[in-house]
Design goal:
Layout (H helix, E strand, L loop, with lengths): L13 H8 L1 E3 L5 E3 L6 H9 L8 E3 L1 H13 L3 H10 L7 H11 L25 E3 L1 H9 L11 H11 L6 H15 L7 H11 L7 H13 L18 H10 L21 H9 L1
Antiparallel strand pairs: 1-2, 3-4
Helix pairs in contact: 1-2, 3-7, 4-5, 5-7, 5-10, 9-10
Length: 282
């Protein structure tokens, strides 16, 4: 099986990949679902550019832990934060890496369980390994999706970040992060994540985003602690076990929406100004 390159697709590479995986970019710059192309020429075009389509790579849990740890060790945390700022505009791929990096950075020192694997969301008994379509995973990161679940998909993100470097923010990106932080500050105590997402949408701060991309950005902010959550520490602070994460999810008062994970699900207003300043300084 031909392995997908460890870089993020861009430019002309995106066109056949979008068609093969059933996405289209609207005039407004948002991404919509579409019928996947059945034209073999699109698959050939993607392969010619170095991208195998609908091909999976298989990794064992221990391999994922080992490789993500090695990749995270090669990254500078300030560069990861700077990439997140760039992810608000010029480089959407920067949104995911704060989550992938946060998950991987404490694996080396985390308590080991069955099979020598920490309680990190990977099933140590999943002997067959995890099958990941790396091309689609990296395409989705290029389009600005980010989420703090399915940790096997953090591996191609981190290895791409090491292989090609992370994006740097421009001044427009920095203006967007300042505007986003102002929107968060303006929310009254008791505001729920869904209400914050709507406020961000109304402010039109981040171009080309839908609800789930905006949630991805807010998840990133919660995992670096800019959005404080009383139910769970951010993964940038320490190792967060999957058992602890599930307990926090079920502790959220009134029950969280199923599509908003912790720690974001527990946020009820407020901003950690010290951590926000670190974002502004990178």
């Amino acid at each position: 099986m031909i392995a997908a390159p460890r870089r993020i697709p861009r430019g002309a590479e995106l066109e056949p990949l979008l068609r093969c995986y059933g996405y289209r970019i609207t005039r407004a710059g948002t991404v919509k679902g579409a019928d996947p192309s059945r034209d073999p020429e699109d698959v050939v075009a993607a392969a010619r550019l170095g991208w195998p389509v609908h091909a999976t790579e298989r990794w064992t849990p221990s391999e994922i832990v080992e490789r993500t740890t090695a990749a995270a060790d090669s990254l500078d945390p300030d560069a990861v934060l700077a990439a997140f700022v760039a992810g608000l505009g010029s480089a959407p791929r920067g949104r995911q890496t704060v989550i992938s990096y946060g998950w991987a950075q404490f694996l080396d020192t985390a308590p080991k369980g069955t099979g020598g694997i920490p309680d990190c969301g990977l099933d140590p008994l999943h002997d067959a390994g995890y099958d990941v379509d790396v091309t689609e995973t990296l395409l989705r990161f290029a389009l600005g999706w980010s989420w703090n679940e399915l940790p096997e998909k953090y591996l191609p993100d981190l290895e791409a970040a090491v292989a090609e470097g992370l994006p740097l923010p421009n001044e427009e990106d920095r203006e967007r992060v300042r505007a986003l932080l102002d929107v968060i500050r303006a929310q009254p105590p008791g505001t729920r994540p869904s209400e914050l997402e709507k406020a961000v949408a109304r402010a039109k701060i981040v171009p080309g985003t839908d609800k789930y991309r905006r949630y991805g950005i807010l998840i990133g902010l919660s995992e670096i602690g800019v959005l404080p959550s009383p139910v769970l520490a951010p993964m940038w602070d320490r190792f967060i076990g999957n058992t602890e994460r599930h307990a926090a999810y079920h502790s959220v008062q009134s029950g969280p929406r199923s599509d908003i994970p912790v720690p974001l699900a527990g946020w009820r207003g407020g901003l950690d100004e010290r951590r926000a300043q670190r974002l502004l300084d990178v």
